[in-house]
Amino acid sequence: MKNIRIVIDGPAGAGKSTISKIAAKELGFVYIDTGAMYRAVGLKALRAGIDTKNNHAAVISLMDGVAIDIKHGGDGQLVYLDGEDVTAELRTPEVSIAASDVSAIPEVRLKLVALQRRLAEKDNIVMDGRDIGSYVLPDAEVKIFLTASVEDRAKRRHDELSEKGIQVSLDEVRSDMEYRDKNDSARDFAPLKIADGAMVIDTTGNSLEQSVDLLIGTIKERLRCFSR
User: Fold this and answer.
1) What is the mean pLDDT of the chain?
2) For residues 35, 37, 39 and 41, what is the CA-based torsion angle, rounded to 10 degrees?
3) Which pTM was predicted?
4) Are 160 and 93 in contact (CB under 8 A)?
5) Is the distance from CB of 203 to CB of 146 less than 8 angstroms?
6) pLDDT tens across 106-140, in order?
7) Which stretches of the chain score pLDDT less than 70?
8) How many CB atoms lie within 10 A of CB 91?
9) Other CB atoms closer than 10 Å to residue 168's CB: what's the count?
10) Residue 30 contacts by C-beta under 8 Å, 6 or more apart in sequence?
11) What is the Cα–Cα distance from 214 to 209, expressed in whole angstroms?
12) Domains by residue range for the chain, with CATH
């Protein structure tokens, strides 16, 4: 039987990772956060002192030697960069900006898309990102575009960072998010957009529980339609 692929796209800070991870667990599917892969590349570039916005050639040169592996532990997805567990380092504002910069480079996307497609062949999956429904897995059984207002998204990300002890102002988080929105939507190769056939879910004003319930309800309804 063919694996079921649920793909969830949307802008930065829409809650894709948190909400998708909970939904995958309830559905008994494997969760794959593709954004973490771009964050790992961004982290590697930052560690190498590369200007990720302007020095694309240096970023591309890193891709020949980069090794990114996704593993699943008791607390969810773990991301390994060149054999090192870097999961805890991937959510800082600096890495977020670097991830958005490197994701605009076609050579980076092509390598990571190949990895994402291989992962999708192994299990029933919930995969989130920016271009999963439009480019990575355009024939996925369920496609969702998850969004919220920039004010809501910035506050959620700010709260998340504060809980982790990362001190950054709300204005800085909002500015970074607006930068990423523009960068992700304007890139020439596989930009952020609503995929054909995707259901748009706006979680503005929702609690986490409300957003999860809305997403799972939408997925289950789509799966029922798929099985008819």
Assistant:
1) 91
2) -150
3) 0.86
4) no
5) yes
6) 999 999 999 999 989 988 999 999 999 999 999 99
7) 1, 74-75, 226-228
8) 16
9) 15
10) 24, 72, 122, 123, 124, 125, 126
11) 9
12) 5-227 (3.40.50.300)
